[in-house]
Amino acid sequence: MKYNFGAGPCILPQEVFQQAAQAVLDFNGLSILEVSHRHKDFVAVMDEAISLVKKALHVPDNYEVIFLQGGATLGFTITALTLMRETKKAGYINTGTWASGAIKEARKVGVDVDVFASSEDQKFNYIPKGYQCPKEVDYIHFTSNNTIYGTQFKDFPKTDSPLACDMSSDIFSRKVDVSQFGLIYAGAQKNLGPAGATLYIVRKDLLGKSTSPFLPTYLDLTQHAAKESMLNTPPVFSVYVAMLNLRHLLAHGGVEAIEKENRAKADLLYSEIDSNPLFSGAVAREDRSDMNVTFRLNNEQLKDAFDNAWKGADIVGLPGHRSTGGYRASMYNALPLSSVQVLVDVMHDFTKKHG
Ligand SMILES: *Cc1c(COP(=O)(O)O)cnc(C)c1O
Predict the structure, then answer these.
(1) What are the structural domains of the chain?
(2) Is 310 labeled as catalytic in the residue annotation?
(3) Quick one: average pLDDT of 27-38?
(4) Does residue 23 have a pLDDT over 90?
(5) Which of 95, 169, 189 to mutate to test the pocket of ligand 1 (most atoms within 8 A of CB)?
(6) How far apart are CA 39 and CA 28, in angstroms?
(7) Is it the case that residue 355 has pLDDT exceeding 90?
(8) How many Å apart are CA 150 and CA 283, to the nearest integer?
(9) Angle 303-312/337-354 helices, nearest 10 degrees?
(10) pLDDT tens-digit profile of 220-271?
(11) List 138, 166, 170, 287, catalytic entry
(12) What is the pLDDT averaged over residues 342-349?
């Protein structure tokens, strides 16, 4: 087996892979791939997936949990359409590619976007601080974990407006107080399950109030909530495997326990980066992500030698995003501490030889 540090689709627990494989062959006498989404056995899966999301994140009763398709990319549009009101104004924090994507899509559907905080001046290698959220806006939007750069909000924006968040790459990795948010969305494939499903958690009182003149049925969360994520054919397999993964998470102590493990994994790798003279962290220390650890070789001439070293140790998925270069170790929930130790050992041995 390889050690998968890829940024997404994510690693999942072996047990979940096995259960998923089994259900492809036999899900109550059919394959999970052929079962009708209206069959009571799948309706039970959807219900359980929704209830496990609520349990894992302690979602208050005044929120809807919805599974859709379209990825976080469609979430950019759905968020803007759901939360736009008379003023059609919103405040966005720009922390990189995904945040910029959300801004672009909101503007396309007619939102007047105020980018009131940005880290573009430093190539997005930090999280903006000391900003004031604009008042008199329909909502405030930010991206909790910046998958590409390896930065993560440790404190969330303070605002009286509904707070919207793209949590694609750190949802279920740490505790969050859902009641601070109006709307959370996340593509499944970064920490929840296979690609294909997208999770929305939305406060009920925010539904049905869109002022958009353009609201296709599929983009209307109110209708999806009313139909309990069964308005049309849901991504059956993706929801099934996400449900299995949530069962696994809750059976192992839930978000509270995995947060501690994720912290330990991040501490292990960041302390190697900080103590090893051949490497440097790529972003501001206080904003470092526990999910996506980005770092660089101080001497680019050692690149081929280092690439051979980690590849030789059966590590995959380590190159940084094509827009940033360097390295990125994505350490989603299912990546064990022992895999991080393998990478740390490679870096350590490499420095003995080349340092
Ligand atoms: C990957 C990612 C996206 C894009 O997700 P898709 O599901 O591919 O649309 C958006 N936001 C963040 C934070 C991501 O990590």
Answers:
(1) 14-251 (3.40.640.10), 253-354 (3.90.1150.10)
(2) no
(3) 97
(4) yes
(5) 169
(6) 11
(7) no
(8) 7
(9) 140
(10) 999 999 999 999 999 999 999 999 999 999 999 999 999 999 999 999 999 9
(11) 166
(12) 98
Task: Answer yes or no: 123 catalytic.
Answer: no
Task: Return the residue matching tokens 């929704």.
Answer: 50
Q: In the 3-class helix/strand/coil scheme, how is the chain assigned residue by residue?
A: CCEECCCCCCCCCHHHHHHHHHHHHCECCECCCCCCCCCHHHHHHHHHHHHHHHHHHCCCCCEEEEEECCHHHHHHHHHHHHHCCCCCEEEEEECCHHHHHHHHHHHHCCCEEEEEEECHHHCCCCCCCCCCCCCCCCEEEEECEECCCCEECCCCCCCCCCEEEECCCCCCCCCCCHHHCCEEEEEHHHCCCCCCCEEEEEEHHHCCCCCCCCCCHHHCHHHHHHCCCCCCCCCHHHHHHHHHHHHHHHHCCHHHHHHHHHHHHHHHHHHHHHHCCCEEECCCHHHECCCEEEEEECCHHHHHHHHHHHHHCCEECCECCCCCCCEEEECCCCCCHHHHHHHHHHHHHHHHHHC
Report the atom number in ligand 1 closest to the C-alpha of 75: 9
The catalytic residue among 98, 138, 170, 290 is 98
pLDDT given for residue 318 in this prediction: 98
Which residue in the list 138, 170, 190, 310 is annotated as catalytic? Answer: 190
Tokens representing 29 are 């006498």
* 270 phi, psi to nearest 5 deg: -65, -35
Locate the ligand 1 atom nearest the alpha carbon of residue 195 and give its number: 7
Mean pLDDT for the chain overall = 97
155-198 residue pLDDT tens: 999 999 999 999 999 999 999 999 999 999 999 999 999 999 99
**Residue 308 pLDDT > 90:** yes
Q: What is the pLDDT of residue 72?
A: 98
Give catalytic status of residue 220 as yes or no.
Answer: no
Question: What global pTM score does this model have?
Answer: 0.98
Pocket of ligand 1 from Cβ distances under 6 Å = 8, 71-73, 98, 143, 147, 166, 168-169, 187, 190
